Automatic annotation (TrEMBL), chains A, B:
UniProt keywords, alphabetically: Metal-binding, Zinc
The keyword Metal-binding is annotated on this UniProt entry: yes
Family (UniProt): Belongs to the beta-class carbonic anhydrase family.
Keyword Metal-binding in annotation: yes
Name of this chain's protein: carbonic anhydrase
Cofactor field: Zn(2+)
CDD domains per UniProt: beta_CA_cladeD (cd03379)
Superkingdom, natural source: Bacteria
Cofactor note: Binds 1 zinc ion per subunit.
EC class (word): lyase
Annotated Zn(2+) binding sites: 36, 38, 88, 91
Pfam families: Pro_CA
Catalytic activity, EC: 4.2.1.1
């Protein structure tokens, strides 16, 4: 079965026993989670989130610069007060440089992505520290917002805080 | 208990019974899901995803322009072949304009975000169509990638495809 048909079938099962239709829009636990898009990392399972609990923002690497628009909306319009950043071991972002991907785009897509920074990194802990520092520095996230950063270990399922 | 301490406790429980440490980096089902960050929407539950199945990219509104960097990495470096876009009913993005949020940033943060488009929309179905059209038009997503778009109904738990 094509994957989209599988999704439609799975959703039909989910909707047939759905009892969460009355949840409010603002996140109940007043938190925005920013995590990598990696397939092995399920923020809800890792953190014990239920529907309605938290905004979940995800992108390649879980990078903060790429999430600023969403974080401002989360904090300023929807009242979240904490940001939790989650990067992870064995991340694809450790395996390429901007030059590599710019070249691959030219060769395989016959297109030009030189204007895009793909935000790879070479040091996992430093990538978390950089993203915390970026959010602490921007005036678009007020100082009252708590910002914490973690590395998720895909081998053990465990979160380790980056100090 | 502060929310981050609750997360650390929940993660300890998750990690204590973790048996998925051997999953490969590329998504098994070769799909990238692009969904809104909304707290009521859990892509894994809605679509029946297990750890390792799919990239999950999330931002305010589930907007494609904001996800292009991640989608290029997903397709070009990690082999996904399908993109599933999920916007949803009662979305916060229907409730404000760029002017509104630019003004609120000035008033409440004493900062300037006029250079940021926050990508709100006034027509939910059209927002899905616009994002599909954007991804079909960009040369950075090859024509071979299947792109489908859905609206998730937060009252019923059901996905409805946008044609």
């Amino acid at each position: 079965m094509p994957v989209v048909d599988e999704f439609i079938k799975a959703n039909s099962t989910y909707a047939s026993d759905f009892h969460k239709g009355g949840l409010p829009l603002p996140p109940a636990r007043k938190v925005a989670v920013l995590a990598c898009m990696d397939a092995r990392l399920d923020p809800a399972k890792i953190l014990g989130l239920e529907e309605g609990d938290a905004h979940v923002i995800r992108n390649a690497g879980g990078r903060a610069t790429d999430a600023l628009r969403s974080l401002v909306i989360s904090e300023l319009l929807l009242g979240t007060q904490t940001i939790v950043i989650i990067h992870h071991t064995d991340c694809g972002m450790l395996t390429f440089s901007d030059e590599d991907i710019h070249k691959k785009v030219r060769q395989e897509l016959h297109a030009d992505a030189d204007h895009i920074s793909f935000l790879p990194f070479t040091d996992l802990e430093q990538s978390v520290r950089d993203d915390i520092a970026y959010l602490k520095a921007t005036r678009l996230i007020p100082d009252s917002i708590e910002i914490r950063g973690f590395i998720y270990d895909v081998k053990t399922g465990r979160l380790n805080e980056v100090q």
